[in-house]
## 1
Amino acid sequence: MICWRAFPARPGAAATEEGGALWAPRQYQGDGRHDNPERYGALYLTCDAVASVVEMLAPFRGSGPVTGGMLRRLERPLVLARIDLHDDAPLIDLDDPVVLTAARLRPSVVATRRRDVTQAYAAELFDRHLEAVGLRWWSTIESRWTELTVFADRATAHLSLSGVDELSAGLPVVEEAARILGMSS
């Protein structure tokens, strides 16, 4: 499965080093949807490149055209990485009613913005499903987009990096994300 990750890259970093495409920034985690940095590092991936860029630009919705400053975090450039998740990687599919029923979860709980709730069920699923390399769910921005939260340590053998491109306002994927968010680029 081809996945995408938009993130602030450290120029010259190897994939698994700090600032690399496969590095899980545990020391910066704790506020994200499925963050539990004391248990695992989380890599947030999407199955659509535009979805990854939308997630990074969403805080700027309504603030005008995309600027260079919007495409930087932690004084680093935002990049879009293409990551291959091997087809045999076991995921917990939170878009499957059978899985939700077994986990005693409702779609409204999966999609809530309350991090105490989403982090709690993620920790429980991580502890209960030792074979799982991550969670599959839908974007709260556009439900047709598939999102993945990958448990970094478990997923290492199932991931390979196949490309990284720095984001700029003129790239089609950035222009499409800006259009979706009602911004001009």
## 2
Amino acid sequence: MRTFVSILRDSFREAVDGFVIYIMLAISVLTIIVVACVGYQPAEAEVHLTKSIKGFAVFIPDKGESKAISAVPGVQYEATSIKVNGKDVLFDLEVTSKLDPGILKAGFPEPFRTAVAGWMKKPYKSEKRKIPPGVLRGGRAGGDTNSDATLKELEIALAPEVSAEEAAAITDDQMIEFIKNQFGAHYGCTDVKVRRRSVPEAGKYIFEIEAINLRGSRGWGHSLSFLHWSLGSAADTPLGLVVHVIEDVLVNGIGGAVLLLISVILTSFFIPNMLRKGTLDLVVSKPVGKVQYLIYKYLGGLIFITLVSTITIGGVWFVIGIRSGMWDPRFLITIPALVLSFALLYSFSTLIAVLTRSAIASMLLTIAFTFGLWLVGYIKKQLDVAKVMGEGDLDGVSNVFDILNNVLPRYKDLDKLTSKVTSEGTYTPILLRFQDMIIEPPSYFGVLGITLAYIGGFLALASWRHATRDG
């Protein structure tokens, strides 16, 4: 243990002497400051609530537990008498059944009661609807949306089978439970007080709503500002989506790439400096085995990047929590994800360093290796989207990149898994179900297994070559 600490201290001295560590810490602090300067302004209740409440027509069966979504036609939701108390919102929720009164008198199940009864049931039947992701994003569909097997699928529950007797048996408490669940599904707001008000009009229901912190919930629309300047973002963009873009695109994506690049440059000197004649002889005479010393040096680099990642990601999470009010800890999964990505790149760098004993070769080849993995993942993603959009015959090229993505380390897939986990802490349940159609996350075991196998393989080759090499 004392030897390992000594080697770690030696690696730290190398980093400090190169001044790169100061640059990394400065970038970390700058990133935290920039994120702290971002402000989140909730949308005006009159405008946003009036528009967004109409989405209550969509619900999640099995009391919000199903993976499918469903809807009952003929139900309209409107928000009236809106009052705002800070981030709390008080209003009347008017639910109207838009069916001809004659149809209702003929014994047809009343739509709102049908929706509540359907929400309480497991989906009696659901189907996978193949829809291009561009449709959800407001883009064009393109191509044959019925035959392309690559189209993403969303499990949609068909209109529930509810008899008139079942609909008529729905109680006020069940209606209230349904309304509360809708606030959780669409806004992520769970502290809601609901009271039904009696009205003489058939097919119409009025609920008095007091939604605590509704304007601060992850599903409420927000606009962004930087210091005192508006960033021009739409005021109806959900807060959770805005935070996810900052966390996943700016921090984990761009920031993570910069952090990994600088770390590769910094640590590319560790192993070659260790292998310089005289340095290694002095160390192994203590005695410390050559392979043991190499592994210690590798672990020292991992500890170094872990500390920097923890400072950066932890600081960003803290200031986002203060500024937005969202404190979901799942964003912190970015720390081990970045460390694992660096562990892969550093194991390759270690192998090249042992083979060439050149810091420059180790640095340049590792950067090229990183870019190659990123390029394969990026092209595969674009080909998948192109196939979904029906843009030409790309099966041959797509198959090649599918094979490359499967056999090479899953560098980009680590990003997909991280994005999947962090979105679960920022998206609303409804938005998550739509995300399942757009994003098809890779297998956890496949990504981690292949990545760890490559790390072990690179280190094993480096250790073997280092142990069998003279001098």
## 3
Amino acid sequence: MVLQVLNGFFILLLILIGRIDYKYRKIPNGLIILLWGIGILAGIVSREPDWILRLAGMFAVSLPLFLIVLAFPGSIGGGDIKLMAAGGMFLGMKLIFLSFILALAGCGMWCAAGLASGRLRRKEKFALGPFLCAGMAACVFWGEKLWKWFAALL
């Protein structure tokens, strides 16, 4: 029961973060801290994923994103990196990785449609946070099923 409440708070924060990032292209640090705190509470309440996978989840996506920013400054926002680290604490390594793949797929389809329709121009900046939030939310609801399906494709 407590885990379901934490899942609900996690989803509500993702909705809020996604809307704020879409509108202002900024993710408030206070919301990231709340998200991270929910991940810690979930780790106390549930043994799945274990603490090692939760800690690994903090770095599984955020560290490569940070390295991309070092190589290509301005390519990804710092809020997106912190968002994935906080999400990794909640979801663990496997599901944060899957959520990132889902986010990139959704983002790619949105960009392709935007370019084809003329609503987007090449090299135009846009908020990545809503896609990251949608990928994490999908993993809260269907993560294990999606992971099995995705692993079967490989």
